[in-house]
Amino acid sequence: MPLHQPPAHSPLRRRLVAVAATVAVVAATAASTTAAATAPPSSDDEGPALVRLHVPDRDVLDELVARGVDLDHDLAPAGSGFVVTGVIWPDEVADLQQLGVTLDVEATASELEAHRAEVMDEREATIAAAEATADALGIEATDTVVIARADRFVSLGDQYLSVEAKSTDLQGADLTVEWDAGEGTAIEDGGSAELDPFVDAGEYQYHRGQFNLSGIITLDVGDGAAAGSYSAVGAAFGDPVDATGLTGTLEAAGDASADPTLGCEPLVGFTAGNIALLDRGSCPFVTKAENAQAAGAVAMVLANNNAGAPFAMTGGTSATIASVMISQADGAAVRGGLPATATLAAQEAVVPSRVRVTSSNGGSAESHVTEWLGEPDTDNSPTCFQGFLDHYPDAYEINDLVRSLHQQFPDLTDVIELPYQTNGYRRQAQQLSGGGTSQRVGVDSHAWGHEGGNDLAITYANPGSADQALSVAVTGDDIVVTLATDATGAVTSTAAQVVAAINGNPAASALVLAYTYRGNAGGGVVVPSGPDALTDGLNAPDHVLREPFQPLMLRIGTHRDGSKLGVMTYSQEHAREWQTPLVNLETAQRLLYNYRTDAETKKLVNNLDIFIVPTVNPDGMLYSYYDFASQRKNLTRYCGVGEPNDANARNSWGVDNNRNYPVGSLFDGYNGASSSCTSATYAGPAELSEPESSNIDWIPDTYDNIKFAMNIHSSGNYFMWSPGAYITPGRETLPRPSLGTEDYFFAASEDILTEIHEWRGLTVTPARTGPIADVLYSAAGNSGDMLYYDYGLYAWNFEVGTSFQPEWDEAYDQMMEFSNGVIELYDVAHRWDTDQRPPRTSLDPDSGTYNGPVALTFESNEPVDIYYTLDGSAPDWDSTRWQAAGVREGGEEILIDRTTTIRWFSVDASGNTENRYVPGQGNNARRGTIRIW
Hints:
Largest sheet: 8 strands, mixed
Number of helices: 16
């Protein structure tokens, strides 16, 4: 058997306990930029604030987790305590302070909302820019452009830009690169040029171009219809154009031939002292320059005769005038407005920070420019397509992309509709009347908001006369509650009476359910108001449908029949973690677009069965995008009458999908989830009650070839695995992996984290690598524990980045580096699957004679589990297994105080036994003797 043989679920001692949540909190977010720390959020603040919590010790941290306080995963030791990010509501502050927790606000509720709006505006602008580019080209984008490299460097004093990019339309696309003039400038301010396709041995590799930024020249036309600034490239002959510049009248020149604008013959009618404009074609560049100079021109501007970029003209000539080339399009624009005053001048070299590459077929991509040789560990190999996304996609765009990839690569993919549709982005319409707690009346529509609930309105009317009875009337979509009055004409109807009247009226109760505020007795008099519209409070655009959502899984591989080793990756169990689907989408596109040309990719796709779920929680994702950035959970409302079920609590509802799984759960008595329907870590009414978690459970239950998994979360830059939950007090964790399995987790982690580091040097630290229970806190009912303990998978968990919704440039880098990690996970899985080499172990110290007791351990060439006996008998699977000395420690020491023959065998992660020993049958187990004098 392989190393990994987790215990069956039954010994986990399911403990059915009632865990009372003392604090109701809601999901939260972290902005990529934060305000200076301020005082804790006050009752005047609307919504939760992003807060740094200074926690005095582990016991208090466990108490915060048990209460369901909305903590991020970015946990750092601080003396004997911890510092952790949380999203805290004002009414939680006093309770936290009583526990000895101090708080510094990093971003207020309004700042978090402003950040969400800023990121969404950036997203919309990026989408609009891509559509504008396609419109300008007169076509819809039919290809995908990726930028493999964008480097700047200095050589012999000149500043250069080198760009390598690829189009999925291969050499059939013309690629143009634009660059900025440094940080803070527009991307087109620095210049532009055409990239050349590189075709080797008949196979397209990529487009490339290297540009001397120190040699950029501008032609500035100061007046007339041609006024503007145009890019030019100086010739290798004649006087160079310097920064001082050369000014004169630009004149369209010509000769007496049938093609006069070419200037291949002596010019006629040209005004001496002016700058001559000619067209490329028919004769050498030097001939044109010589004819211009002979006619008295002080400089020559040559317009290219094709759509390619201008370039440096060459040739030997006696002409000494400055000569430059401009593009064909610029030449046509200039010619139409001549004569005009113009200046040729060399520009100071720019130091670009970003580039954009645009395809003639509509694709476009942007990238940072890196300093060549400045980051020697960075690997931006141009041999593979990468960097496919340029904005955060929402759940509908994700599904469209998944289906599009299947259409493009039908032989390599299947699209699997997961069996449990989610509730969808929809809610009942609600309205809450004014006044104090005892005066309020809440009403919910029975219909979904988009199916009529949003059309309803309710009025609480003062009849304006004395001794009136309470009554309810319905006309169409309007509910009018006429309040009772006394002999003085004062309103007397209490909230409880109004609720009873509405619910007792057949016409009104057919439309709405009324209730007092959060279980209050409702003895206060209702405040007249209205008409007030009911609303579901949902703000997403029309393409976001108000109906159940169909989550999709993309399956990739040349053999998708269960015959190959399966690997699953899934992301966005928590809605606010916007960058996590990017990792899965980038990875899927790398696998598919590189399959034909990259041998390593082909190896993975041919030998693995890959399952990718980009978003587990599409409903919450959409709500986080368009309504409430801090949404953590799904959108299912389990809060009923008497609980916070009213519109004021709409940002607090939902189930934490990653607390709803059936191993080490709240229902088993484990710490780190809540039974409160508004808690950030609400576990739901039962294990696997939610379609989101049921889908993740369905995948390995249906596809039993899956042996590896990665759950992608944010934030904190962690890399973790089981056990992920413990019971407090006592910190009794779920059963720990064996020493060999733990060593395998760590060994594979080093490979995966090395590839993450290669992108830009990010290091996931050793302190943030390991079992969740060791490096973070208890997370009862998380999916990784289910996959490990119930299905026997090697299951890891990424925590990407340091915030939930970083600005796009940062999100892009996180996408790229953690996609590197996922690709390496596939390679780890493939090596595990193909490993047939038996492990090798030895005793330390070795067999021999010793004067006194010996502390015996084992050494091995790879992660292994070792089974041994000390009585000379043949070891088998029931023999003693070598254990860890402690948490995050190596193997224990075995004390030998008398002459002992030890027999043992080892087994690696792939199930290979040392010496190919067959436990219980063979006689070739390893043997050693320690003799004690």
